[in-house]
């Protein structure tokens, strides 16, 4: 009797136990399917999964670079992979791309995705050091300089990008610049290694041709560099070729530009005078026919008052540094609206995104100094010629 009683009790306990296990399993399944919520330690669970996922994404990032897969790399980054993650040797993805695959498209894509151009390994190496040491040509060193790489950074052995440079860089005119820059304080807001957009020209020696000078006739400020014959070391005429300051992608090319009428010109100037500052849409009209180029590091160059644009300069096209992108003109000026070719001059602006332009808020001497960093020493007008 006693035995049977206990026996039944054991069976009942087992049934209850099985039922409980069943209920727990069902609840856990519902929890996993996110149908029910439980106050369980889901945090540490997910944390480990996230960490494993991040580790995998990082491995994929370096694998995609090794395979020179630019499209895959961009997908991985837009899916959340950290573009500044480092591998076991402390290299960032950018350093790895520069020192192994050396594909400019891959490097451009990484820079565009926000890779830190001045990151350093634990030994102090930068992407620029790998580029000057390992590159067979000057494309990557220029790409990195144009994106704001700092040649004055030293590694833990005290070496600069010039010190570690290999033969192709040492044998080039860039090497002397790298040596000069290695001893200077570099302005990290602006690039290096650009060229002046008119062959052989300097920046204007006249302060009123620089960014930041006032334009009272339209209640505004000048945002670019004007290149007029007589003050830039070379002659400037209607039709003088204008070249890209750095390699990049065309993001605007006004092939269908229609010149303002004199009446139209006078109307927008009157409207500007009635405003506190020149409204952006009016300023855009006053720049006339334009080409805009997007460069590494998020910089944009704008070329204004053009008379003509080569047929192959269209939106989306890649251009090389020094490639002709337009011809000097006077479009958008009073003279053009009057049907003349008077007053031709390239007007060139360098922008950091849409935020600020090169020279904004600086005095003329500071702009000429900064021009030495951006366009090189030869771009700076002689001190004796400067007009304030
Ligand atoms: Zn101008």
Q: Compute the number of strand runs.
A: 11
Order of helices and strands: HHHHHHHHHEEEEEHHEEEEHEEH
Global morphology: elongated
Number of domains: 3
Strand pairing plus helix content: what structural class?
A: alpha+beta
Main sheet overview:
7 strands, antiparallel
Summarize the structure.
By secondary structure, the protein is an alpha+beta fold. The chain folds into three domains: 2-40, no CATH class; 59-181, Serine Threonine Protein Phosphatase 5, Tetratricopeptide repeat (Alpha Horseshoe), CATH 1.25.40.20; 207-385, Glucose Permease (Domain IIA) (Distorted Sandwich), CATH 2.70.70. It has helices at residues 2-32, 42-66, 70-78, 93-101, 104-112, 127-134, 139-146, 167-170, 174-181, 262-273, 280-286, 334-337, 364-375, and strands at 214-215, 220-221, 225-226, 241-243, 248-253, 291-294, 299-304, 318-319, 324-327, 347-352, 356-357.
Describe this structure as you would to a colleague:
The chain is an alpha+beta fold. The protein folds into three domains: 2-40, no CATH class; 59-181, Ankyrin repeat-containing domain (Serine Threonine Protein Phosphatase 5, Tetratricopeptide repeat, Alpha Horseshoe); 207-385, Glucose Permease (Domain IIA) (Distorted Sandwich). Helix content is 38%, strand content 10%. It contains 13 helices and eleven strands. The strands form three sheets. Strands 3, 5, 6, 7, 8, 10 and 11 form a seven-stranded antiparallel β-sheet that branches. The protein has a two-stranded antiparallel sheet with strand order 1-2. The radius of gyration is 30 Å and the shape is elongated. Zinc ion binds next to loops.
């Amino acid at each position: 009797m006693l035995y049977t009683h206990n026996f039944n009790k054991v069976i009942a306990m087992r049934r209850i136990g099985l039922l409980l296990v069943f209920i727990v399993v069902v609840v856990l399944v519902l929890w996993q399917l996110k149908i029910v919520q439980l106050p369980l330690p889901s945090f540490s669970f997910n944390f480990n999964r996230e960490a494993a996922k991040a580790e995998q994404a990082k491995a994929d990032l370096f694998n995609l670079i090794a395979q020179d897969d630019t499209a895959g790399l961009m997908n991985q980054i837009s899916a959340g992979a950290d573009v500044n993650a480092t591998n076991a040797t402390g290299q960032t993805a950018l350093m790895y791309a520069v020192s192994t695959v050396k594909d400019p498209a891959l490097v451009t894509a990484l820079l565009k995705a926000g890779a830190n151009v001045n990151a350093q390994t634990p030994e102090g190496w930068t992407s620029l050091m790998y580029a000057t040491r390992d590159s067979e040509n000057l494309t990557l060193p220029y790409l990195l300089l144009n994106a704001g790489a700092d040649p004055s950074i030293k590694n833990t052995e005290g070496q600069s990008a010039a010190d570690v440079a290999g033969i192709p860089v040492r044998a080039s005119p860039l090497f002397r610049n790298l040596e000069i820059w290695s001893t200077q304080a570099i302005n990290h807001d602006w690039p290096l290694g650009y060229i002046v957009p008119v062959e052989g020209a300097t920046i204007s020696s006249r302060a009123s041709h620089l960014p930041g000078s006032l334009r009272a006739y339209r209640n505004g400020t000048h945002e670019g560099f004007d290149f007029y014959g007589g003050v830039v070391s070379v002659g400037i005429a209607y039709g003088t070729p204008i070249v890209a300051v750095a390699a990049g992608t065309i993001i605007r090319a006004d092939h269908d530009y229609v010149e303002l009428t004199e009446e139209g010109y006078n109307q927008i100037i009157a409207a500007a005078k009635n405003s506190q500052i020149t409204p952006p849409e009016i300023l855009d009209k006053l720049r006339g026919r334009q080409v805009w180029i997007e460069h590494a590091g998020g910089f944009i160059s704008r070329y204004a008052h053009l008379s003509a644009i080569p047929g192959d300069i269209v939106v989306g096209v890649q251009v090389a540094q020094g490639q002709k992108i337009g011809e000097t003109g006077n479009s958008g000026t009073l003279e053009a609206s009057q049907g003349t070719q008077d007053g031709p001059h390239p007007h060139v602006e360098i922008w950091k995104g849409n935020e600020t332009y090169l020279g904004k808020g600086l005095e003329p001497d500071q702009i000429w100094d900064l021009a030495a960093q951006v366009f090189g020493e030869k771009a700076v007008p002689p001190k004796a010629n400067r007009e304030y």
